[in-house]
Amino acid sequence: MKNKIAVIFPGIGYTCDKPLLYYIIKWLRSNGVQVVTLDYTGLRKENLQGNHALIVDAIQQGIEIYERKVSQQRLTEASQVIFVGKSIGSAVAAKVYERLSDQQKEKTKLLLLTPLEETLQPKLRKDSIVFHGNQDPWANTKVICSRCAEQEITLYEVEKANHSLETGDVELDLRNLQWMIRKMIQLLEKE
């Protein structure tokens, strides 16, 4: 994976040391991908759920954090760019993607974990993938399914899973984690 860069856009509470992000970061690094992780420390968490105005504000703050940490030159020079977003981070990743040049979009892959409804408003790549728990209180399953279908984005719906893509059944959660990581790797290995 020569000259590839991945930008990890975590959630506010779901940081890069949580299972889904931890293992995909570990896989990326073991395959020679330069990984840049963002940190939303200080971003407001309270009253975000269901409050569109606060979510939009948090997304803008996330974009500013991204712009301070990632130079456009690094993205331009990379042979491939990978955006991995979780929750609010998926919305930030989608907005950053929307601002890329057509040439940069062509070499950027998107992996979106428990996206907020705001994530799927810009037009995204058809080969993007979305993981959504159908018991996620942060995003309406019908809206997520509809927006993915409209854009022909692959949606993996995780049965009985919440916003952390967990069900409460440890053995099932471990199987789901392994399955999701495999699906992400399959997308990343496709040229």
Describe the structure.
This protein is an alpha/beta fold. It has one domain (4-189): Rossmann fold (3-Layer(aba) Sandwich). The chain has seven helices and six strands. It has helices at residues 19-30, 52-69, 72-77, 88-99, 102-106, 141-151, 170-189, and strands at 4-9, 34-37, 80-86, 108-113, 129-133, 154-158. The chain has a six-stranded parallel beta sheet, sandwiched between helices. Helix 1 links the parallel strand 1 and strand 2 (34-37). Helix 1 packs parallel to helix 7 and helix 2 (52-69) crosses helix 4. The mean pLDDT is 92.
Global shape:
globular
As a whole number of angstroms, the C-alpha radius of gyration is: 15 Å
Number of strands: 6
* CATH A-level architecture: 3-Layer(aba) Sandwich
Give the end-to-end Cα distance, rounded to a whole number of Å.
Answer: 10 Å
Q: What does the largest sheet look like?
A: 6 strands, parallel
Which structural category do the helix and sheet elements fall into? alpha/beta
Which stretches of 5+ consecutive residues score pLDDT under 50?
A: none
H/E series, N to C? EHEHHEHHEEHEH
Oligomeric state of this protein: single chain
CATH topology: Rossmann fold
Overall mean pLDDT: 92
Percent helix among the residues?
Answer: 40-55%
Strand content: 15-25%
CATH H-tier superfamily: Alpha/Beta hydrolase fold, catalytic domain
